[in-house]
Write a structure and sequence with these properties.
The complex is a heterohexamer, with 3 copies of chain A and 3 copies of chain B. Chain A is α+β, with helices and mostly antiparallel strands. In chain A, the strands form 2 sheets. Chain A has a 4-stranded antiparallel beta sheet with strand order 2-5-1-6, with helices on one face. Chain B has a single domain, classed as Ammonium transporter AmtB like domains (Ammonium transporter fold). In chain B, 71% of the residues are buried. Classes of the chains: A alpha+beta, B mainly alpha. Bound molecules: adenosine-5'-diphosphate (ADP) (3 copies).
């Protein structure tokens, strides 16, 4: 099983979630994060001085998927999260050893 | 003549309640502007002043300010110690148609908010214990005498003929310059100008500014001490100056910084209220619009110069109260007219240059006295008990480290 | 007769302060209902109106509304331009026992809050610059004339004998229908009805509603322009209508939607206050309970029909102010009785059908006039400077993109 | 004698508005102290009481409390049902110089806030529907009779000669002891004393406390029912007691718990306001400082003993209102002096031990009556409709589960 | 070493933390997240229209444990976080290459 | 490619970010978390009772780096995040299978 983490622009969340849902994803987990990357933060003027606000608000989607869903999921995210403008974000894929559904105790692919 | 008037009494009591409400309003105005980790400590400073200074005033502060002169027009005597001789009957030396107690407590609220104004200068780094001692000392040796000079029976500035309708010198200049003293002696916040120290809750600041505006009707129009035409006139000038300054600050900021901010509009309103305070009962409504427009712009400039001047007056007490108060006191010397208030005087624009001179003297002396004495008090307290919290406490925030609390627990 | 009364003056000045406080109250009421990213922009619209319209009113708005009629009962003359001839003495044409300036500034606060009410309709998408121009134009060509018709000396609706104690037509119908015009011309928020746009801070909305309720005592009971039995009566009807409507909205919502919401209770209170405004000084306390109960239910229905009607009036100005105000104006035609106010008239339930007709005419004309002129202004401004912010700005939120600020920085 | 006085009327109407504002203030004071998931449900309880009890009062509550005695000094008759016979003219049995309607609505606000005070005891777990029924019953069978005893014409406690200037027994003791009853019958919150249940928003609590303080000027000084020397005196004692108690609570907390908290300062202020309420118009300013100092310390102790006593009075209604109110009522028996109020009596310290006895009787009877009847009502309601929400609902929070809303949506 | 990530119901956090503590866990890190899965969000009515609130508040516990603690930790979470009702959450296990304690510079199992 | 996760003290964030930036890191993602470990929370007194506040506010920095940057990044964090006092936090290193830049579709090291 694979874990897919995607850092995306916050206003794209609903669209990405809907697309993943259609693609047959069973579940996902979202958190609010702040990003730092090529997309620079902005300069704010406050009481006569300038300050750099380095971080940009982003949303992180995490989901564990079976290996055969991986390609599908990645391409869905790529398509829907893309605006073409800097700061669109990243997708990270890594390997998960085990998945357990707490409610039922199911393990492995069926637990995803 | 010393017949109680119910209408006047109702008005002054309401005004007192309004001015009392300004101090919590100030707590919010300031509280919203600090970082989240310091919101409670900032609010606390204003809130506890409402407790401490009220008691000080009843015990001896009122006497020092308003009891018959103890000599030279410099300080009041002890006749009113513990509110002795301050009763339910009017005392025509203070206000002929309202209970003397009403006059006393109306004045109390001014004594309360003045030291609270100063706290904006040293927000986010001052030791709570030292702050309490500072406040008590400052009220006793700075505020009480200055109030006596300007408003007390026999006070020398009053005798000289300078005008201060509702506290331009007594409240705003005295606190504004003490704020500068404090910013200089206490020193900058760690990482000042390095890391952003944005207001954590501008909605709170707007609520505070709105309460201040609301309460200021009591502050200025209540200073007529009667529900008459003068009160209405002062009410109008107060409102128009606030309105005009909110607009002028916003516009000048929009031009120079590209965006009109809500903090700017709120700061502008307060700047206008400060600027009109000394002249509220002496100038016409049209003059008050001009005073507001200029006051908003001047304070905007002052606030934006601060980083260049190099002191860290956290919440811009100097830029708003000192600059706005000084401008307002001098503007009174320009725009005052006896057509508005026959008990006042004409200003330069009405053919009397002398008033401007007197205003300048009142401003100058207040400024120097408050600045020097404030510096002395702070230097002494720094030696005796220390002014600043520990470095780590400052980084973690004063709410947790000084008060053991968090402003918000949202998770 | 034109003898200043201190009690009346105290009451009107306090009422003025209370009505002034309503505009920041409205800022919070609305600010809590938008999404977090737009809280400051929403607050700003009300706050800056307090600046801009106050100055407009002093310069020429008051004259257009209240100066002696310029002809035909349609508009005031220029006698009061720059507050000329508006002094500290009572003017019996306006109020016989209080300073003319007090009457003027009391009226100013009504002129301020009316355009602020409209802002709820186009919240979360309107350009700040266009909004300022719209507000100035709207006040000048819609509010000022209507105020003259209804309350001005010689105004034609007043002459006709329609009743509007504290602004049902002038304030609520005129702004409520302008809100509909704005919602239609400006268009819906992006993703309206697709994604949830829940209130981001209902506690703020409750604070706002409470301040509105508090201030409305000045609005309605202050409209007696004296501290007399009529003021007390209007105070009572105002409070009871608000109370009854808070209850009725909550109950009907509970029945139909399963849960009684806090937003519902707050909205209901405001609906009741709107509904009683035109009749506050003409109906009995028991009638005011009935008006409140019905007003709460009607506005609940109107607000819940909105999605079916297809326009996006973001914060339900139409459902509350237009519907509530219209109901209230007509209810005045039913419940008014000269037993409460001999200067008023009897309504249908007291045997006089004519009043209802006059009320209907006043409602109808105000509605058509405000709607048509508002549409014209908006269409022209859309061509000249554009009404809406850019799509991306709307998505990111107006606080950042229009004002360069964040409401809260909590991390 | 029964000549309307505009000044007095203005003052009582303003005071009424101020007391009305206290209930939303209380909503915030309490709302900030609960956990985030219950903020709206807590605010709602106070807010909807403003609706429900206002209507109850107009329909029959006022009559039960204030109509001419129905027999034995125990309850008012039905003469004022639906506000019959309550008009714009003064009725010298109540207040000789203001409209009877003004007196009625001033009293209404007391009837509103009293049950709202109780809600703090059962916050975070009470069923909304049961709460509404409880409130209506409690007002009718507890508040209305007690108000009659103490303030009604012919009320037995009043006849006996016990003093209660602004509601020490009627408001604070009656609600404080009912809070104890509620805490006992309803039972503790799940995980009480196991998991921390810290205030989620102390800034909101401070805003609430500040509004309470502001409004309390209407509560106490308004109880003079005239804008005279007595009103000024009560204003002063009210403020000084609040100030002194804010200071004393903060200091004693600092000594015993190492840190002076903002919640402590706010709680102290409220404790002082409670403590001075019964004696506000009977004691001197210096006595009020002493009452405040002691009141702050006593309430601090009471609140801190709570965990040892084993009941879960969520927001310390018992520790503040019952303890503070009882202390204040007895202190009135000590400090009252006819030099302040010739219509009052001398207390023990002025040579008259009898008053203390009468105060004790008033306290004792009020306490027993309210406690017993409250227990009975709650036990019956528990059987009939249940007092507590489901376990899961309590864990998820009442905002979502009872009202379908969230206080804040910040992401 | 293994990383265990558990998405659980927020009100279970204290219980789970206490149980893990007793089981000898040295440290863990918690964050607030929003979940999307079989447990559907809810429909909210607002001003006459219905909206689907897709996400459910959840809490994520992350902890890195030595291999021999793994089974223990997983079963403790399974037991304490379980309510049997839908939405109880998931446990994901993956492999960690290295752990470093910043304060001491310790690495590997001793740093956990 | 490696994923580096560092749990650090919040007030160190700016310093660490600046140092990583200088070390040539292209991007990172930050989230607010609460930690539980040797550094105990604190006891708070509230209304006469004592409560243990178990969790301490921390910040989590996540970044994916190419293998040859790993050592550099870890040592930079170690140095700048260290105060020597308990609670300085941990660094976890794990392996990432794939990285995708959403904007361009780039994959692998160039996408980091
Ligand atoms: N190497 C990385 N590790 C972790 N997060 C990263 C990394 N690079 C970028 N990110 C995240 O992705 C977001 C977008 O990256 P950025 O470089 O600004 O633009 P783009 O994705 O268009 O190249 C950043 O704000 C950050 O949250
Ligand atoms: N494949 C997944 N990847 C990431 N998180 C998941 C995944 N499946 C479920 N979750 C998380 O677990 C939570 C509970 O899952 P859900 O399907 O609602 O119920 P259950 O755990 O009872 O099957 C979700 O809200 C989501 O946060
Ligand atoms: N095994 C672990 N798994 C996940 N997070 C951990 C682990 N151990 C520690 N942490 C995180 O690191 C923080 C600091 O750890 P702590 O044990 O308090 O101090 P130190 O890092 O000085 O040993 C904790 O608050 C927690 O967030």
């Amino acid at each position: 099983m694979k874990k897919v983490e995607a850092i995306i622009k916050p206003f794209k969340l609903d669209e990405v979630k809907d697309a993943l849902n259609e693609a047959g994803i069973a579940g996902l987990t979202v958190s609010e994060v702040k990003g730092y990357g090529r997309q620079k933060g902005h300069v704010e003027l406050y009481r006569g001085a300038e300050y750099e606000v380095a971080f940009v608000p982003k949303v992180k989607i995490e989901m564990v998927v079976s290996d055969n869903m991986l390609a599908r999921v990645v391409s869905v995210i790529e398509e829907t999260a893309k605006t073409g403008k800097i700061g669109d974000g990243k997708i990270f894929v890594s390997t998960v050893d085990e998945v357990i559904r707490i409610r039922t105790g199911e393990r492995g692919e069926t637990a995803v | 003549m010393d017949q109680l008037n119910m209408g006047d009494t109702a008005w002054v009591l309401v005004s007192t309640a309004l001015v009392m409400f300004m101090t919590p309003g100030l707590a919010l105005f300031y509280g919203g502007m600090v970082r989240k980790k310091n919101v409670l400590s900032t609010i606390m400073q204003s809130f506890i002043i409402l407790g401490v200074v009220s008691v000080q005033w009843a015990l001896f502060g009122y006497s020092l300010s308003f009891a018959p002169d103890a000599g030279g027009g410099l300080i009041g005597g002890l006749d009113f110690l513990g509110l002795a001789n301050v009763g339910m009957e009017p005392d025509p030396n203070y206000a002929a148609t309202i209970p003397h107690l009403a006059f006393m407590i109306f004045q109390m609220m001014f004594a309360v908010i003045t030291p609270a104004l100063i706290t904006g200068a040293f927000a986010e780094r001052f030791k709570f214990k030292t702050f309490l001692v500072f406040t008590l000392l400052w009220c006793t040796v700075v505020y009480d005498p200055i109030a006596h000079w300007v408003w007390g029976p026999g006070g020398w500035i009053r005798e000289m003929g300078a005008l201060d309708f509702a506290g331009g010198t007594v409240v705003h200049i005295s606190s504004g310059i003490a704020a500068l003293a404090a910013a200089l002696v206490v020193g900058k916040r760690r990482n000042y100008l390095k890391e952003p120290m944005f207001p954590h809750n501008i909605t709170m600041t707007v609520i505070g500014a709105s309460i201040l505006w609301f309460g200021w009707f009591g502050f200025n129009a209540g200073s007529a001490l009667a529900a008459n035409g003068l009160a209405a006139s002062a009410f109008v000038t107060t409102h128009l100056a606030a309105a005009a300054a909110a607009v002028s600050w916003t516009l000048v900021e929009w031009m120079y910084h590209k965006k009109p901010t809500v903090l700017g509009a709120a700061s502008g309103a307060v700047a206008g209220l400060v600027a009109i305070t000394p002249g509220a009962g002496f100038v016409t409504p049209m003059s008050s619009i001009i005073i507001g427009l200029i006051g908003g712009v001047l304070c905007f400039i002052a606030v934006n110069l601060k980083p260049k001047l190099g002191y860290d007056d956290s919440l811009d007490v100097v830029g708003v109260h000192f600059v706005g108060g000084t401008f307002g006191a001098l503007a009174t010397g320009l725009f005052a007219t006896t057509m508005v208030n026959s008990a006042g005087a004409d200003g330069l624009f009405y053919g009397n240059a002398a008033l401007l001179g007197k205003q300048a003297v009142a401003v100058g002396v207040t400024m120097v006295y408050s600045f020097v004495v404030s510096i002395v008090i702070l230097k002494v307290l720094d030696l005796v008990m220390g002014l600043r919290v520990e470095k780590d406490d400052e980084l973690r925030g004063l709410d947790q480290t000084q008060h053991g609390e968090s402003g918000y627990i949202f998770d």
